[in-house]
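TASK: fixed-backbone design
INPUT:
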Protein backbone atom coordinates (compact mmCIF):
# COMPACT_ATOMS: atom_id res chain seq x y z
CA UNK A 1 0.00 0.00 0.00
CA UNK A 2 2.45 2.62 -1.21
CA UNK A 3 1.21 6.19 -0.89
CA UNK A 4 2.67 7.24 -4.23
CA UNK A 5 2.30 4.70 -7.02
CA UNK A 6 4.71 6.67 -9.25
CA UNK A 7 7.63 6.00 -6.91
CA UNK A 8 9.23 2.71 -5.95
CA UNK A 9 8.77 1.61 -2.34
CA UNK A 10 11.83 0.87 -0.24
CA UNK A 11 12.93 -2.73 0.17
CA UNK A 12 14.94 -3.31 3.34
CA UNK A 13 17.56 -6.00 3.90
CA UNK A 14 18.95 -7.01 7.30
CA UNK A 15 21.76 -9.47 6.56
CA UNK A 16 23.35 -9.31 10.03
CA UNK A 17 20.06 -9.73 11.92
CA UNK A 18 19.69 -6.41 13.73
CA UNK A 19 15.94 -6.97 13.91
CA UNK A 20 16.41 -10.33 15.69
CA UNK A 21 18.82 -8.75 18.19
CA UNK A 22 16.25 -6.07 19.02
CA UNK A 23 13.47 -8.68 19.34
CA UNK A 24 15.69 -10.52 21.85
CA UNK A 25 16.30 -7.30 23.79
CA UNK A 26 12.55 -6.58 23.91
CA UNK A 27 11.91 -10.08 25.28
CA UNK A 28 14.52 -9.45 27.96
CA UNK A 29 12.73 -6.24 29.01
CA UNK A 30 9.50 -8.23 29.41
CA UNK A 31 11.21 -11.05 31.32
CA UNK A 32 13.01 -8.57 33.57
CA UNK A 33 9.64 -7.55 35.03
CA UNK A 34 8.59 -11.16 35.72
CA UNK A 35 11.98 -12.08 37.19
CA UNK A 36 12.35 -8.72 39.00
CA UNK A 37 15.70 -7.93 37.38
CA UNK A 38 14.79 -4.26 37.52
CA UNK A 39 18.19 -2.58 37.22
CA UNK A 40 19.39 -4.62 34.23
CA UNK A 41 15.97 -4.43 32.59
CA UNK A 42 15.93 -0.66 32.99
CA UNK A 43 19.42 -0.41 31.50
CA UNK A 44 18.37 -2.33 28.37
CA UNK A 45 15.11 -0.36 28.17
CA UNK A 46 16.96 2.96 28.19
CA UNK A 47 19.11 1.74 25.30
CA UNK A 48 16.10 0.59 23.29
CA UNK A 49 13.91 3.66 23.80
CA UNK A 50 15.25 6.32 21.51
CA UNK A 51 17.61 3.93 19.69
CA UNK A 52 18.76 5.17 16.27
CA UNK A 53 19.49 2.55 13.61
CA UNK A 54 21.58 3.69 10.67
CA UNK A 55 20.44 2.61 7.20
CA UNK A 56 22.47 2.60 4.02
CA UNK A 57 21.32 2.99 0.44
CA UNK A 58 18.45 4.91 -1.08
CA UNK A 59 16.40 5.22 2.13
CA UNK A 60 19.17 7.17 3.81
CA UNK A 61 19.61 9.34 0.72
CA UNK A 62 15.83 9.99 0.67
CA UNK A 63 15.09 10.61 4.34
CA UNK A 64 18.44 11.61 5.80
CA UNK A 65 17.26 10.09 9.10
CA UNK A 66 18.00 6.77 10.80
CA UNK A 67 15.29 4.25 11.63
CA UNK A 68 13.78 4.13 15.12
CA UNK A 69 12.18 1.16 16.87
CA UNK A 70 8.70 2.23 15.86
CA UNK A 71 9.88 2.23 12.21
CA UNK A 72 11.09 -1.36 12.55
CA UNK A 73 7.60 -2.41 13.61
CA UNK A 74 5.95 -0.38 10.82
CA UNK A 75 8.22 -1.75 8.07
CA UNK A 76 8.04 -5.33 9.36
CA UNK A 77 11.75 -5.47 10.13
CA UNK A 78 11.20 -6.77 13.66
CA UNK A 79 8.28 -8.49 15.38
CA UNK A 80 7.82 -6.13 18.31
CA UNK A 81 4.96 -4.33 20.02
CA UNK A 82 6.39 -0.85 20.41
CA UNK A 83 3.70 0.52 22.70
CA UNK A 84 3.96 -2.51 25.00
CA UNK A 85 7.74 -2.07 25.08
CA UNK A 86 7.38 1.58 26.09
CA UNK A 87 4.95 0.75 28.92
CA UNK A 88 7.21 -2.04 30.22
CA UNK A 89 10.24 0.23 29.98
CA UNK A 90 8.45 2.90 32.00
CA UNK A 91 7.51 0.33 34.64
CA UNK A 92 11.15 -0.70 34.95
CA UNK A 93 12.24 2.92 35.07
CA UNK A 94 9.81 3.55 37.93
CA UNK A 95 10.86 0.62 40.11
CA UNK A 96 14.59 0.88 39.34
CA UNK A 97 14.88 4.53 40.37
CA UNK A 98 14.72 6.07 43.82
CA UNK A 99 11.68 8.16 44.74
CA UNK A 100 13.41 11.49 44.17
CA UNK A 101 14.63 10.48 40.69
CA UNK A 102 11.52 8.76 39.34
CA UNK A 103 9.66 11.72 37.90
CA UNK A 104 12.63 12.90 35.84
CA UNK A 105 13.46 9.36 34.68
CA UNK A 106 9.89 8.65 33.58
CA UNK A 107 9.41 11.93 31.76
CA UNK A 108 12.72 11.68 29.89
CA UNK A 109 11.83 8.17 28.73
CA UNK A 110 8.37 9.32 27.59
CA UNK A 111 9.97 12.15 25.64
CA UNK A 112 12.49 9.79 24.04
CA UNK A 113 9.75 7.31 23.14
CA UNK A 114 7.85 10.00 21.20
CA UNK A 115 4.53 8.47 22.18
CA UNK A 116 1.42 10.37 23.25
CA UNK A 117 -0.99 7.58 24.13
CA UNK A 118 0.57 6.75 27.49
CA UNK A 119 -0.59 7.01 31.08
CA UNK A 120 0.44 6.18 34.62
CA UNK A 121 -2.53 3.80 34.75
CA UNK A 122 -0.96 1.71 31.96
CA UNK A 123 2.28 1.53 33.92
CA UNK A 124 0.40 0.50 37.08
CA UNK A 125 -1.22 -2.42 35.25
CA UNK A 126 2.07 -3.66 33.77
CA UNK A 127 3.38 -5.57 36.77
CA UNK A 128 3.07 -5.78 40.53
CA UNK A 129 1.75 -2.79 42.48
CA UNK A 130 3.99 0.26 42.11
CA UNK A 131 5.88 0.99 45.35
CA UNK A 132 5.46 4.36 47.09
CA UNK A 133 2.75 5.46 44.66
CA UNK A 134 1.06 7.88 47.08
CA UNK A 135 4.40 9.51 47.91
CA UNK A 136 5.26 9.66 44.20
CA UNK A 137 2.07 11.37 42.99
CA UNK A 138 2.76 14.81 44.57
CA UNK A 139 6.31 14.80 43.18
CA UNK A 140 4.99 13.70 39.78
CA UNK A 141 2.41 16.52 39.75
CA UNK A 142 5.02 19.08 40.78
CA UNK A 143 7.38 17.90 38.03
CA UNK A 144 4.71 17.85 35.32
CA UNK A 145 3.40 21.24 36.41
CA UNK A 146 6.70 22.79 35.40
CA UNK A 147 6.58 21.27 31.89
CA UNK A 148 4.64 22.95 29.11
CA UNK A 149 4.14 20.06 26.66
CA UNK A 150 0.84 18.49 25.65
CA UNK A 151 1.77 15.10 27.13
CA UNK A 152 2.68 16.78 30.43
CA UNK A 153 -0.82 18.33 30.54
CA UNK A 154 -2.43 14.92 29.91
CA UNK A 155 -0.31 13.19 32.54
CA UNK A 156 -0.92 15.99 35.06
CA UNK A 157 -4.69 15.68 34.60
CA UNK A 158 -4.43 11.94 35.22
CA UNK A 159 -2.23 12.38 38.30
CA UNK A 160 -4.70 14.87 39.79
CA UNK A 161 -7.54 12.40 39.24
CA UNK A 162 -5.52 9.60 40.87
CA UNK A 163 -4.70 11.63 43.98
CA UNK A 164 -6.88 11.36 47.05
CA UNK A 165 -6.95 15.12 47.71
CA UNK A 166 -10.04 16.81 46.16
CA UNK A 167 -8.26 20.17 46.37
CA UNK A 168 -5.28 19.09 44.25
CA UNK A 169 -6.84 20.43 41.07
CA UNK A 170 -7.24 23.95 42.44
CA UNK A 171 -3.79 23.84 44.06
CA UNK A 172 -2.27 22.83 40.73
CA UNK A 173 -4.23 25.49 38.83
CA UNK A 174 -2.89 28.18 41.16
CA UNK A 175 0.67 26.85 41.10
CA UNK A 176 1.02 26.09 37.37
CA UNK A 177 -1.30 28.53 35.60
CA UNK A 178 1.55 29.79 33.41
CA UNK A 179 2.35 26.34 31.97
CA UNK A 180 -1.16 24.84 32.26
CA UNK A 181 -3.81 27.60 32.22
CA UNK A 182 -6.47 25.06 31.26
CA UNK A 183 -6.55 23.72 34.83
CA UNK A 184 -8.73 26.65 35.90
CA UNK A 185 -11.24 25.77 33.19
CA UNK A 186 -11.16 22.10 34.25
CA UNK A 187 -11.75 23.04 37.90
CA UNK A 188 -14.77 25.24 37.11
CA UNK A 189 -16.27 22.61 34.80
CA UNK A 190 -15.89 19.78 37.31
CA UNK A 191 -17.28 21.77 40.25
CA UNK A 192 -20.33 23.51 38.73
CA UNK A 193 -22.66 21.23 40.68
CA UNK A 194 -20.50 21.06 43.80
CA UNK A 195 -19.66 24.68 44.66
CA UNK A 196 -21.82 27.70 45.28
CA UNK A 197 -22.16 30.58 42.85
CA UNK A 198 -19.85 32.96 44.72
CA UNK A 199 -17.09 30.36 45.09
CA UNK A 200 -17.15 29.47 41.39
CA UNK A 201 -17.13 33.11 40.33
CA UNK A 202 -14.26 33.89 42.71
CA UNK A 203 -12.10 31.09 41.28
CA UNK A 204 -12.98 32.10 37.72
CA UNK A 205 -12.09 35.74 38.30
CA UNK A 206 -8.84 34.65 39.88
CA UNK A 207 -8.07 32.69 36.70
CA UNK A 208 -8.90 35.67 34.47
CA UNK A 209 -6.59 37.89 36.50
CA UNK A 210 -3.67 35.45 36.48
CA UNK A 211 -3.76 33.91 33.00
CA UNK A 212 -2.07 35.80 30.19
CA UNK A 213 -4.57 37.44 27.83
CA UNK A 214 -2.97 35.74 24.80
CA UNK A 215 -4.31 32.29 25.75
CA UNK A 216 -7.56 31.17 24.14
CA UNK A 217 -8.45 29.13 27.22
CA UNK A 218 -8.84 32.43 29.09
CA UNK A 219 -11.66 33.30 26.69
CA UNK A 220 -13.27 29.91 27.40
CA UNK A 221 -13.08 30.56 31.15
CA UNK A 222 -14.73 33.96 30.66
CA UNK A 223 -17.58 32.31 28.74
CA UNK A 224 -17.94 29.75 31.53
CA UNK A 225 -18.37 32.60 34.02
CA UNK A 226 -20.87 34.38 31.78
CA UNK A 227 -23.00 31.21 31.57
CA UNK A 228 -22.83 30.70 35.34
CA UNK A 229 -23.85 34.32 35.95
CA UNK A 230 -26.72 34.09 33.42
CA UNK A 231 -28.03 30.89 35.00
CA UNK A 232 -27.87 32.48 38.45
CA UNK A 233 -29.39 35.90 37.68
CA UNK A 234 -31.67 34.94 34.76
CA UNK A 235 -30.74 38.18 33.00
CA UNK A 236 -27.82 39.96 31.36
CA UNK A 237 -26.00 41.91 34.08
CA UNK A 238 -22.94 44.15 34.02
CA UNK A 239 -20.88 41.17 35.18
CA UNK A 240 -22.09 39.04 32.27
CA UNK A 241 -21.15 41.77 29.80
CA UNK A 242 -17.75 42.11 31.46
CA UNK A 243 -17.10 38.37 31.01
CA UNK A 244 -18.13 38.61 27.34
CA UNK A 245 -15.70 41.48 26.91
CA UNK A 246 -12.92 39.40 28.48
CA UNK A 247 -13.79 36.52 26.14
CA UNK A 248 -13.35 38.86 23.18
CA UNK A 249 -10.12 40.25 24.63
CA UNK A 250 -8.50 36.79 24.59
CA UNK A 251 -10.17 35.49 21.42
CA UNK A 252 -11.00 38.28 19.00
CA UNK A 253 -13.21 36.26 16.67
CA UNK A 254 -16.34 37.72 15.11
CA UNK A 255 -18.66 35.62 17.29
CA UNK A 256 -17.15 37.06 20.46
CA UNK A 257 -17.25 40.62 19.02
CA UNK A 258 -20.95 40.26 18.13
CA UNK A 259 -21.79 38.82 21.51
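OUTPUT:
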Amino acid sequence: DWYNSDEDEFLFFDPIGIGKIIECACRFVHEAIDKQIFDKGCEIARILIGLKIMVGGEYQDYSGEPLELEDLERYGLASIDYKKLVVESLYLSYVANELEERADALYIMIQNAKIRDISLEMIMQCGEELPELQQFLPKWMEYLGKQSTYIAQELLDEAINLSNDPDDLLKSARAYYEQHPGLYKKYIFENQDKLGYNDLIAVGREGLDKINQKYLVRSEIALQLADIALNNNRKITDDVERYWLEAFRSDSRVVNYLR
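COMMENT: The first helix runs from residue 18 to 35.
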